[in-house]
Design a protein that fits this description.
126 residues, mainly beta, seven-stranded mixed sheet, four-stranded antiparallel sheet, 11 strands, 0% helix, globular
């Protein structure tokens, strides 16, 4: 198990950029696939981006493709989400997640990840 803590959320204007960070403690992130999800009140948790254990593969939700970039630094036990050209519909609580046994074909499913952070709020005003 790893403990995950997100940071970097805030209130920005549409078109701005923001970078979220997620630090893992207790254990190393090596060997874990990592992902970002987001959620708004009354809606299911939405897949944003995922990265394979070694960082060799990345995957993005259709709504953020081309604007968001996921990255990781296993040496620092960090995961990042660079968000560019933010839109009002990106407003949500963003969660960092990690899983040791993520099935590649199911990487967009939040049930694949068994370690979660507490979330960080991102608000984009138009």
């Amino acid at each position: 198990q790893v403990q995950l803590v997100e940071s970097g959320g805030g209130v920005v204007q549409a078109g701005d950029s923001l970078r979220l960070s997620c630090v893992a403690s207790e254990n190393s992130l090596s060997g874990y696939a990592v992902a970002w999800f987001r959620q708004t009140p009354g809606k299911e948790r939405e897949f944003v981006a995922a990265m394979s254990r070694t960082g060799g593969f990345t995957y993005y939700g259709d709504s953020v493709k081309g604007r968001f970039t996921i990255s990781r630094d296993n040496g620092k036990n960090m995961v990042y989400l660079q968000m560019n050209v933010l839109k009002s519909e990106d407003t949500a609580v963003y969660y960092c997640a990690a899983g040791r046994r993520v099935i590649t074909s199911s990487r967009r499913n939040h049930n694949q990840y068994d370690n979660w952070g507490q979330g960080t709020q991102v608000t984009v005003s138009s």
